[in-house]
Write a structure and sequence with these properties.
Blueprint: H1 14-18, E1 29-36, H2 38-50, E2 56-59, E3 64-71, H3 76-88, E4 100-105, H4 111-114, E5 122-124, E6 128-132, E7 144-148, H5 160-172, E8 178-182, H6 188-195, E9 200-204, H7 208-220, E10 227-229, H8 232-238, E11 242-248, H9 251-264, E12 265-277, H10 281-290, E13 293-301, E14 304-311
Parallel strand pairs: 6-7, 8-9, 8-11, 9-10, 11-12
Antiparallel strand pairs: 1-3, 1-4, 2-3, 5-6, 12-14, 13-14
Helix pairs in contact: 9-10
Length: 312
Amino acid sequence: MSPTRRRASWAVSSAARSRPVEPREPTRWIELRVEVPAESAEAVGAILRDAGCLGTAELGRDPATVVGHLPASDRVQGAIERIEDRLAELPACGLSAPLGFSAAFAEDTDWATEWRKHFRPLEVGRRIVIKPTWEQYEGDSDRVVVELDPGMAFGTGGHPTTRLCLAALEDWVRPGCVVADIGTGSGILALAAAKLGASRVHATDIDLLPRRIARENVERGGLHERVLVHEMEEFDRVARGCDVVVANILASTVMELAPSVRGRLKPGGVFIASGIVEERLPEVLKVLADAGFRVEEVREEEIWRAVVAVAE
């Protein structure tokens, strides 16, 4: 659920370089820390990024502490209040409520880029490596390299739900197949599907910012002819006759979308659904069966589950 940066270029004349530079007042940052049961950590990260945090870090496992930073300004109090309101809504979405929330001035650090220290090349499954644009990868040359800058969108490969989807895509994407990615975030799953051989990938996200970030990553990777990031109405129209649909979202959304996903797949097509906490797996399996799916396998990592289901 959801979890993209402008580049600037400029020329500086030798005369300008010779002038003294006025010292700039350093930006002060507010550090936000949300202690939360692991099942809610992904959603909390999305809430912080939606509020303006350029990135988030997840510390610990269960409970986890999700950390983000906002620039201190006259608007930060309003942002914090909106975060509190959205955190209070988590139980209504079937997720556990936070155990604690704090906001305090952080040390003088460039938190606009500090989060990048937590994002390094990551090998996933048998064949994939996720590489941030600012890092080099010197590992296994046979691996498929997916390069991206996640910015404020979800999807770096570091979360178990994303890793489960990537590993499933390795097994189920065939050369020339058509894939749909629902809730694309940074575009990580769509990019991986194309790198694994899909001839066409349709992707979308409910939020504008992830769609923009995903498009930037697609362009940066030179995959714009095969990976199309659509507005939602267009996605609904064109993402049909798919061989694979992947959705790394919440259990409640998986269940809500199951009938429509069935309609997007060819007979025998595969639905890879992740973001499912173990306690909700039985109800997800029942909804999938009622929607016309046969469950092929259930993958697990920590408290998270991913279901691979075949359209009958």
